Hints:
By secondary structure, the chain is an alpha/beta fold. It has a domain at 93-109 and 227-437: Rossmann fold, CATH 3.40.50. Helices cover 47% and strands 15% of the residues. The chain has 20 helices and 15 strands. The protein has helices spanning 17-23, 42-48, 53-65, 71-81, 114-132, 145-154, 173-180, 196-208, 210-216, 226-246, 262-273, 289-296, 320-327, 332-343, 352-361, 369-383, 389-404, 425-432, 440-443, 459-469, and strands spanning 4-6, 32-34, 93-95, 100-104, 136-141, 160-167, 187-193, 218-220, 251-257, 277-284, 298-299, 348-349, 362-366, 411-417, 453-456. The strands form four sheets. It has a six-stranded mixed sheet with strand order 3-4-14-9-10-13, sandwiched between helices. Strands 8-5-6-7-15 form a five-stranded parallel sheet, sandwiched between helices. It has a two-stranded antiparallel sheet with strand order 1-2. β9 (251-257), α11 and β10 form a beta-alpha-beta unit. α5 (114-132) packs across α10 and α16 packs across α17 (389-404). The radius of gyration is 21 Å and the shape is globular.
Amino acid sequence: MLKYISTRNQGEESKNFSEVVIEGLAPDGGLYVPEACPKISTAELEELKYVDYAGIAHRTITPFVDDSINSDELYQILQASYLNFSSEDTAPLKKINDDIYILELFHGPTLAFKDFALQFLGNIFDNLLAKQNKKLTIIGATSGDTGSAAIEACRDKENLEVFILHPHNRVSDVQRKQMTSVASPNIHNIAIEGSFDDCQTLVKAMFNDKELKKDKNLSAINSINWGRIIAQVAYYVFAYLRLKTKEDIDRVIFSVPTGNFGNIFAGYIAMSMGIPIEKLIIGTNSNDILFRLLATGKMEIGTVKPTISPSMDIQISSNFERILFDLLGRDGKAITKIMQHFATGKGFILEENIKQQLLRIFKAYRFDDDQTKAIIKQIYTMNNYILDPHSAIGVGAAMQYLLDNKKSNNCKIISLATASPAKFSYAIEDAIGVSPKFPPKLAEIINKEEYFTVLPNDFARVKDFIREKAK
């Protein structure tokens, strides 16, 4: 049976799926990873080629779940998780030229890719808490889309109390209103006077407060929670298989707009399972810590700059710890030392052999706001297709990779489209002079009353607020 360990692995016993999902963050401050990555064979992939999304997700996720949830229950959870997606194919694959396809991941309830993981995680919480007769206090940080997707997945659930921290005045109006217009009694929105990294640091501090964690039974809904990662692995498997039905390919490249490294880390897990992925391309905005890391080998925190792609306005890529754990031979002591040093703001430098291992898997590109708007305009002019700013960075990275590198024969690039352009209409209008069509589910929230509390970037103040409101 598959078990999980912490990346900081300080001699604690391994845990099962149910334990790591409920806990979210390990007691030693590390992130949970499986002791070994399950594999999927070429023969199995061939059999799955024409299976629907829920079926492919079921096969992908099953080996990670052990006996915490039986196979039939898991399938029912997955079906329920994707029931409210507006596309029949759940994640449609669109061709934009001979080399690049776009995987549309924005057809869920909140029009962002986070719905894939958070609808699943909300239903998983429901299942496990009902079995254990427990209640959870969920704490999460959002740079835009995680919050609304988490709230949509967890609203009105009796066993969950949800606190979502977002950077005050640093998310789009639509992103904010998707969160703050929800009047459910178990939902609490906190606007932090600071950056997303400040929000994320506060969340981690809550989990490191052992008394608070035990008293309020805290759990995480950010991508530090392993349950989110495995849900995202499924769409990499699905995308590869769908492309196989359209093209004679042997391998695939994925281009991913990413800030916190969670989305692209799911691609790394898909690669580790046996999906023939030739390269994972990282697209970043001006908050380019991942680009700088691959270019120099140094991971160093910079100042967060507000951009038109706010979900990537991040300088601390939490999930990078997971891949670093693999590259350092799963040495928990080494990871602990590095991450504690990084937390002081001093950064760290990778050894050359580790950097080269990363470069064999990843390639990174960065784009500022003007470049991002130019990509939006180029794709709209050539293809009559509108990209949101985050997705544009993914497509821009794919196009730049094609200019810089030769890819293998029988290989295509799939670029992940992570949000509906309607969520960033101000940037779209600025780029192409056309306003994207506003879906009814967004139009109805514009004039709704908002519910949120503005708090300073102060651990004690946020902790007191959570203690007061959590039942």
